[in-house]
Structures are given as structure tokens and as C-alpha cells.
Design the sequence.
């Protein structure tokens, strides 16, 4: 059960780039909320949903990743993608969009920005990987999410609007 939770119900076991698969639920939930909620409620609904994903992903990663580390013998097992779920949610915290085209553009931009910062790991994200067990797996993704959120907000307010 621990491996199923840390892999976001199997997304981490999918072939090629499991972190990319683990990032998708947060981006999809962001887009779905923007499509379904009226404009004035979208920001609130999205913020609540992203906070829940951050808390759940973070808890799962810190609590259960050490068991997966022990089972696999890897310091940062690729199958653990709860950290990507949480980090990608940080990217969309405080973001909203209206209209189909804008929703898809912002969802795609946020997704790509998070993946970029998660892969490149600019300082101090790379240093955060040195934290023990689940904390090290999680912290760099939360930092990547912060970087991506800043750039996404600039993109939304300077380029799109």
C-alpha cells in the first residue's frame, strides 16, 4: 500500500519519465476546476484543491518514501512521484484561468515550467535533495514548484493579460 500511495496509484511505475506522469494530476485538476467553476469561485476552489494536493503529497512522501527507499535500495526511487504531485500543485497555487484557450495555455505553461525547474534544480533546490529520506525527495520539488509558480504568475500577468 505504501508503494501504491507514493507512486500516486501506479503513475510512478509507468515507463519513461515517471516524474512527468506524477505531475499530471495536479495540472489536470487545475484545468478541470477552471473549466467547471464560475470565474469568481475558480480561484478559491483551485487554491483549496492545490493546498490539499500539497498536504497529501507531502505527507505521503515524508511518511512512506523511507519504506520505498529501504525496499528498493535507492536514495530517490523513480517510482516515488508524490513529491511531483505536491510540487506541481505549488505551481498552480493562486493561479486561475477563464476561457478554454487560456485554461489550456496556463495549464500547459505551469506543467512545463514545473518540469523544467524540477529537472534543472537551480540552487537551492539541488541542495535540498541532501535532506534525509522523504524530506530530501520532497523538498527539491516544493522549491521547483515555487520557482515555477513565480514564473507562471509573471507569464499570466505580463504576457497573457
Sequence:
Amino acid at each position: 500500500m505504501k508503494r501504491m500511495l507514493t507512486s500516486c496509484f501506479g503513475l510512478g511505475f509507468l515507463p519513461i519519465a515517471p516524474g512527468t506522469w506524477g505531475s499530471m494530476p495536479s495540472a489536470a485538476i487545475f484545468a478541470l476546476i477552471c473549466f467547471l467553476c464560475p470565474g469568481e469561485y475558480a480561484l478559491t476552489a483551485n487554491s483549496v484543491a492545490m493546498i490539499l494536493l500539497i498536504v497529501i503529497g507531502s505527507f505521503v512522501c515524508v511518511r512512506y518514501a523511507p519504506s520505498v527507499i529501504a525496499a528498493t535500495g535507492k536514495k530517490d526511487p523513480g517510482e516515488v512521484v508524490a513529491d511531483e504531485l505536491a510540487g506541481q500543485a505549488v505551481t498552480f497555487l493562486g493561479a486561475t484561468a477563464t476561457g478554454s484557450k487560456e485554461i489550456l495555455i496556463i495549464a500547459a505553461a505551469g506543467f512545463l515550467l514545473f518540469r523544467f525547474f524540477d529537472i534543472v534544480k537551480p540552487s537551492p533546490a539541488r541542495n535540498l535533495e541532501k535532506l534525509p529520506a522523504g524530506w530530501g525527495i520532497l523538498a527539491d520539488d516544493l522549491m521547483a514548484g515555487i520557482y515555477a509558480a513565480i514564473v507562471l504568475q509573471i507569464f499570466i500577468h505580463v504576457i497573457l493579460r
